[in-house]
Amino acid sequence: MESWVDGADGSGFGLENLPFGAVALGDGPARPAVRIGEHALILEPLAEAGLLGELPAGVLAGPVLNPFLALGRPAWRATRARLTELLRAGSPEREAAAAALVPLAQVETRLPLAIGDYVDFYSSIEHASNVGRIFRPDAEPLLPNWRYLPVGYHGRASSVVVSGTPVRRPRGQLPPAEAGGAPRFGPTERLDIELELGFVTGPGNALGASIATSAAREHIFGFVLVNDWSARDIQRWEYVPLGPFLGKSFATSISPWIVPLEALEPQRVPAREQDPAPLPYLRTEEDWALDAELEVVLVSDGGEETVVARTNARGLYWTAPQQLAHATVNGTNVRPGDLYASGTISGPEPGSFGSLLELTWGGRDPLELAGGEQRAFLADGDTVILRGTAGAISLGEVRGRIEPSEA
Q1: Engineered SS bond to 292: which of 180, 234, 313, 329, CB 3.0-4.6 Å?
Q2: How many CA atoms lie within 13 A of 10 on its CB side?
Q3: What fold, for 20-110?
Q4: 407: pLDDT confidence band, cut at 50, 70 and 90?
Q5: Which residues are designated catalytic?
């Protein structure tokens, strides 16, 4: 179908996409919206006029989407169908919808969720193997548990920020300069990025219950791009024996528009073979890998864009339903607006690695940027942009600029 909104068709944000987010006009409050082309469609006035079907009063009043996510898949599907009807060419309700349409240039995107919990996984076998080779060169790259379960850790939800939010260089304990010496303290010298794809949950489960892989579609609302910024030196000093902490918790950036799972159905493809076969609770009967092309762009202060990596999410070893099933198999409860990230997505070739740690092999082989500058890790003033597309659907972008450490 075609849309009556100028420029929407073929933009990646046409009727086949309709991602959800939150925008603010001037100093006003954030309001839930759907993106169509280069416009935001404000949802509350349409809901109040009864144009989005039978929704509870105030569910789209803002400032976040959590109340809408709590309604579940039947409401998501019905609302998406109504939005498609409102925005398609020839819609008899075009005038009413046009009154709620605002150019993106006139609004500011806001964090569309109140994120109660954030989990980061380690789902790419290429990334996990590369990190193992860099950090433990004389040992097996993968630990014995890796092929049996989606390894993950509980991240810091309070520091998840929307694309465009500056990222301040974190400080912390750095590894000793000499073996057996005392750690140093100061700004990280190895600031890195992680190219990830995250999913956002809806209704969730009761405490003590679990979510089967076969029920994933009822709980996964949609997907966002994720940059899980990492201070590699802080991380390396702290991560044994309990895993990431300060090296990760200072900032995680997500794209502002949540692409609904329903929009990505045509991009679901067979996942890679898993060996050994997963335990019964991790088995899936459907194709759950996502054919999504991803890229990492690095821009020095005042410089030009340099694409430093390209890869595809379909190569992930552990899929979203497996991640959700594992996260809840012990009975923990999922809530509307929770965020689950894939972990760094890397491919098999050097130019397909999703982190600077891998792209420069621990800093040994610096990257050359447009203009001749080199980078092993991020410098102050650098901007990182992650972009993604899934067929005709744009996943948008997530960007962040590195600010100097506090004095």
Answers
A1: 313
A2: 2
A3: SH3 type barrels. (2.30.30)
A4: low
A5: 127
